[in-house]
Every structure is written in C-alpha cells, then in structure tokens.
Amino acid sequence: MTEGNGSAGSAYERAGVSIDAGHRAVSLMRDAVARTHTPAVLGGLGGFGGLFRPDFAGLSDPVLVASTDGVGTKTKVAARTGRFAGLGADIVNHCVNDILVQGARPLFFLDYVAMGRLRPEVVAEVVTGAAGACEALGVALLGGETAEMPGVYMEGELDIVGTVVGVVDRPALVDGSRLTPGDAVIALPSTGLHTNGYSLARMALDGLDWTEARADLGGERLEDLLTVPHRAYLGAFDALRSAGVPIHGMAHITGGGLVDNPPRVFPEGVGMRVDTASWTVPPLFELIVREGRVDRAEAFRALNMGVGFLFMVPADQVSAALEALRTAGESPWVIGEMVAGQGVTFSGGTPGEAVSGVSP
C-alpha cells in the first residue's frame, strides 16, 4: 500500500494529511527538545513512549502530582498576530504552576499540538518555546504528539495541550489544611492575561487596532500585551523555602480569577479577604472592562486582574517573605488575609467601582 507515504499526490495527502510535514516538524524541534534532557531521560525523541527514571533520593514518601491543561483561545490571538513561540511557554508554565500549588517540583512535560493542516515551522516554534520554558525550569520535555486533523480545525487554527508530572515529599505537601484565620496573603503579579480570559478579551478588543501604540496602555500595543507568555512562579516558591518561610497555602490565579481559584485550597470554615486597593489593576484589564462593558464583579472572576499567584503565610512571617521574594527579583505585596468564613470577599474598592461578594 502507498497510502500515507507522504509522496506528492498520495491518497493521504489528498485527504489533507502530510506525513512528511510531520517529520519536518520533528526535525526542526529536535535540538531544542534534546537540550531539556537530563540523565533521568532514557532514550531520545521519537519513541512510542517517553522513558524517565526519577531520582527520589532524600524523599521519605514521594508523591507524584500530575496536571493537564490547554492554552484556550489564546491560540486565536497567536494566529491573528503570527506569534506562536509564546504558546509553548504558556502551556509549560501554566501546568508547572498548577502542581506547584501543592508544593510539587516538575519532573517531565509532554505536549500535544493539533492543526487542520500541519505547518511544520509553526509547530516547531511552539515546541521550541515549550522546550525553552522547560529548560529554564529544569524540566525534561519527554515527548508529545503533533496531530494533523483536516475538517476538525479550521485553516490556520491550532490547539495546544500539555501534561506535567512532578513530585513532592508527602510531609512537605501543601494542601491548605494548615490555613488559619490571620494568615497573611501575599500576591505576585501576572504578566498579563496569562492563558485565561481570551474569549472575553477578543470580544472586547476585536474592533481595535492591535498594532497601534495606545496612550491608555502606556504606549504599548495590544499585539504585544496579548501575546506575553504566562509566567512561572517556581523560583518564588524556592525563594520562600530557602528563607525558611512556612507556606500554608498557595493559589494559581487562572480561569475563575480571584473569586474561584483561592477557595480550592481553603479548609472548612476559613475564607479570604482581598483588599482591592492594595494594587493597581494594569491598563490592559481596564481597557477590556471598558471596551467590553464588563461588570466589574464579573471581571474579577473571568480575569486575573494583574494577580498571578498567591502565597498564604503566617502573619509573623510577612516581612521575611517579602524580603525573600524581593531578593529573588519579585514584586510582591500583601493583598489580604485569611479570615473566618468561606470563599473570598473583596474590600477596599476598585478604580471606579467597589467589588464585593463571596465565591459560590
């Protein structure tokens, strides 16, 4: 049989799938992926399964922690702007942050990239971006999948999914059970929308010129701000641990914003109060709210509003925590405190309108 041999005019190619394009994509990304490999990786790129031999030395009771996620409709922003490399960093950092909340360090990562018609250079740009993020975090990019599915995805569209596996010693597991009223909540800024809220953002901003330097964005352009990669917070976690600061809880502010994400780690009877006057919402979010006529309470649930990650620490450790984070190059601030109750309440008002409420 000749179907699927990738030659010009083959039946598979007439059906919209090019095996040769898949091979080219792999060859373009091979070196970047190989740079993430450590002695723990057994075998190279291209096997049916990735092989990883973890070193659990020093862990009394190792627990594996895994997470899978996607970058959502940020892919549409990438297609509109022609900027795809950031999507690779987006998915790696998003997944790493998700397992970090439980105190886990990432071991290896796998990616999945799907398109209607395979564009090897685009796939390689995405995976090379993912490899760069993995290399920066000490994570092995163990393998992945590139899928060409004509009829499923529109021309020029793509989808990106990632899976990360990490490990935490069970005695060091951070599950929120130690949270108590009076604990301080320290925030770290996001680098933009990260990987959530892009459907709302595109609806609000679609009619604007994304290439224009805007005064209401401090001279920045939408095409730049909307493609900034989702950042990782592993370094900040390491800084607190190195300083001996006890971490009672953490929250990654993704879809659901400050309303729905923090309560995922709250024990029964403990809530959180957020002071919305403690930081200035970045101009990009204000533009989305204004142009999309978004209710401010909804904005705090759909967008991160400039807050990327939360650390909950004992009140008497605030000074030590802030110092450790600033020394690590972070820009932390105290955003609130843990209180008796449930969910998240907001106080302090926001520019133009106060926000209050309890997460469902």
- CATH top level of the largest domain is Alpha Beta
The end-to-end distance, rounded to whole angstroms, is: 58 Å
CATH structural fold name of the largest domain = Phosphoribosyl-aminoimidazole Synthetase, Chain A, domain 2
- What structural category characterises the helix and strand content? alpha+beta
Give a short synopsis of this structure.
With 360 residues, the chain is an alpha+beta fold. It is built from 12 helices and 12 strands.
Overall description:
- The chain is of the alpha+beta class.
- The protein folds into 2 domains: 14-172, 2-Layer Sandwich (60s Ribosomal Protein L30, Chain: A), CATH 3.30.1330.10; 184-347, PurM-like C-terminal domain (Phosphoribosyl-aminoimidazole Synthetase, Chain A, domain 2, Alpha-Beta Complex).
- The chain contains 12 helices and 12 strands.
- The chain has helices at 11-14, 19-34, 74-81, 85-100, 120-137, 198-205, 222-225, 234-242, 257-260, 283-292, 296-302, 318-327, and strands spanning 41-42, 51-52, 62-70, 105-115, 140-148, 158-169, 184-189, 249-252, 270-275, 307-313, 333-340, 344-347.
- The strands form 3 sheets. It has a 6-stranded mixed β-sheet.
- Strand 4, helix 5 (120-137) and strand 5 form a beta-alpha-beta unit.
- Helix 2 runs parallel beside helix 5 (120-137).
- The longest helix has 18 residues, at 120-137.
- The radius of gyration is 22 Å and the shape is globular.
- Mean pLDDT is 88; it is low at 1-7 and 350-360.
